[in-house]
C-alpha cells in the first residue's frame, strides 16, 4: 500500500518521542494521518502485525532460554558504563583545555574520527559474535551478553557524539557537517535495541529473570522477550543493506514502511504518529499506533527494511489460532504464535470457566526435556515467547496433568519473504489424567487432537 497524503513539518527541536536527536542530526519529519480516515479504522488486535525476521531457508540457529542475574557480566557492564563516562569527560576536558582554536578544532575532529572507528569495530564485533554462535563456539547466553555489551558501548559513544556536537557549537569559526553527525548516529543505532537493553537489566539484577528468544542467520539476528506486560522484539539483517547506493528518499522510505506494515501504519496515532529521520545511508521511521510502537530502518540503497524494533502491550494481543485440550475438569489453551512471537497459555476450570493457578512447563518435542515457566496465577494466564519448533506444554494440578503438544504458526514476514510459510499449522494435544485407561479421538481447531491416559503423571525434568 502507498502512504496516505501527509502534511510534512520540519522539526527544529528534539522530539519527545525520538529522544536526544537534535537539529544537527539530520532531517526529521513529523507526519499526521488524516483524522477522518482514522475514525474508520478497526482495532488491529485481530489483524496481522508483520515482522522483520529470518527466512526459514536462512535460519542458522534458534533457541529460547531463561536468563537471570549474573555477577560477572553485571560487573562488566558497570565497568563499561563508568569507563564511557570517564572517557567522554576526559575528551571534553582535553578539548576545553586547548591553548588555541586550531588545537581545539583538531582535537574535536580527532575525537569524532575515534568514534567513527569504534563504530566500525563494533560492526566487526557484532558480526563475529553471530558467526561464533552459529559455529556453536559460544552459547545463546554468551551471544546475548555480547550483543548487550555492544549496545551499551554504542550508547556511550553516542553520548560522546552529542557532547562533541555541543562543544563544536561553542567553538568560534568552526563547524562539523550535520550530515556527518547524523550518519554516525544512525550507524550507532545499528547496535542498539530494546531487547538488548532489557538483557542488561536482567543480568545486572535490575529486572527479574526472563526467557529470551534468539534466532540467527549468517549475518543477522532476531531477539524477543516478554517483560513488564509487553512483548518486545528487535531484528537486524545485514544482508539487506547496500552502502554503495543512496537512491531512496525519506518519502519513499515512508511508503516502504507503509507497505511492509499495513496494519500498524493504518492505525497510527493522529498526533505525532509518524516520524522519519533521514541520515547517512538509512532512514529511521518510527510509528506510534493504537497498540504499540514500531521503529523500522530502511536502507537507502536496497529500499528494504533491514532493522526493526517493536513493542506491544500484552493486553492488546489476541490470536485466531489456538490449540486446546480438556481433561479432568481442566481446560488448557495455547494461543499459538510464530517463532519468537508472544505465546499465551491459559488454564481454566472446564465447566465454570474460572481461571486456575498451576505450574506450567514447556519444552521442545524433539528434546524430551522441559523447563519451568512459572505458574498461571490468579487469572490463569502465563506469557512467554514461542519456540521455533514443535513444543510441549505441561500443566500439573494435584494428581492431574494436561500435556499439550503443538507447533508455531507461519511467520508473518515483511517484504519479499511475506509468502514464506515457515511452519505448518497442525497441532497435537495430549491430556493426561491420573486414573482411567480410556482413550478418545477428537478434532480441534488447530488440527488432530487426542486424549490419552496412564497410571500417573510424571512432571517433566529441567532442561533447555
From TrEMBL:
Highest taxon of source: Archaea
N-terminal signal peptide: none
Pfam families: DUF7094, DUF7096, Fn3_arc
Annotated Fibronectin-III type-like domain residues: 323-403
Xref: InterPro entries: DUF7094, DUF7096, Fn3_arc
Disordered: annotated segments: 412-464
Record domain DUF7096: where: 4-207
Domain DUF7094: 212-317
Ranges annotated as biased composition (Low complexity): 424-448
Protein name, per record: Secreted glycoprotein
